[in-house]
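Page 37, continued from 36.
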């Protein structure tokens, strides 16, 4: 009778055991590799977050320095007006006291406004190694020229005013201008934006600045360095600024700025 070698019967079982052991080692290696990759990914994410935070801080520092130097020009203008007013009032005090009192009143107003802007400037982290500009800083009346420049860049844009405008300080006018400038720059930087609309809403005690566009709504449009700079401008005056995707499409930047105090 033919007999089967017992060793031969055990060979398949041994092979299965070796294959199972090898497969287990492979799986264990893959698990270890996955853990290493996850650790590396977490480290890279943490490093990227630190870099983004550092970049955001750098942007804010740069913008605060820019605001401070611009306010320096505003304060210098206010002090110049105050000095000229006091000198003119002194010269005509004897022959026209009523006119002199009015000139001195305006000089006092300029001095108070300059002091207020100086206090705001001192609240910022001003760097001393950045040269100041001698050019006049833009005002609300310069928004028309800004819109012309934006139209030349290929964006259809218009502006409307609602309510009764009131007199505001030059520093606040400058911040309104910069907010509109940054918002339109953000629109120009995004694809598929064809038009934008700027709205100034004057209300008792505050001014709403709205910039709406029909551009492609993406997460990056409501965050980033431009938004940080605009928000810094608004916060300087105790205001707020938000940007959000509109339900009908596009993005709206909305700032509320106090006009008193």
């Amino acid at each position: 009778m033919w007999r089967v070698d017992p060793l031969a019967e055990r060979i398949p079982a041994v092979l299965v055991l070796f294959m199972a052991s090898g497969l287990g080692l492979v799986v264990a290696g893959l698990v270890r590799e996955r853990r290493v990759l996850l650790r590396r990914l977490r480290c890279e994410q943490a490093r990227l977050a630190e870099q983004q935070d550092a970049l955001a801080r750098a942007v804010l520092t740069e913008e605060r320095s820019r605001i401070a130097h611009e306010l320096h020009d505003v304060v210098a203008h206010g002090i110049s007006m105050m000095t000229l007013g006091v000198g003119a009032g002194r010269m005509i005090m004897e022959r026209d006291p009523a006119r002199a009192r009015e000139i001195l009143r305006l000089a006092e107003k300029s001095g108070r406004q300059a002091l207020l802007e100086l206090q705001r400037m001192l609240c910022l982290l001003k760097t001393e190694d950045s040269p100041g500009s001698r050019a006049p800083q833009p005002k609300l009346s310069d928004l028309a020229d800004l819109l012309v420049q934006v139209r030349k860049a290929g964006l259809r844009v218009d502006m409307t005013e609602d309510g009764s405008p009131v007199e505001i300080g030059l520093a606040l006018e400058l911040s309104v201008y910069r907010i509109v400038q940054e918002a339109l720059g953000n629109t120009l930087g995004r694809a598929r934006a064809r038009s934008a609309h700027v709205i100034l809403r004057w209300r008792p005690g505050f001014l709403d600045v709205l910039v709406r566009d029909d551009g492609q709504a993406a997460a990056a449009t409501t965050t980033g360095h431009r938004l940080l700079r605009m928000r810094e401008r608004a916060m300087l005056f105790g205001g707020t600024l938000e940007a959000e995707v509109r339900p009908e499409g596009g993005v709206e930047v909305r700032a509320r700025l106090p006009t008193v105090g």
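Helices lie at 6-92, 97-122, 143-152, 170-188, 225-236. Flag for discussion at group meeting. Residues 146 and 152 are 10 Å apart (CA to CA).
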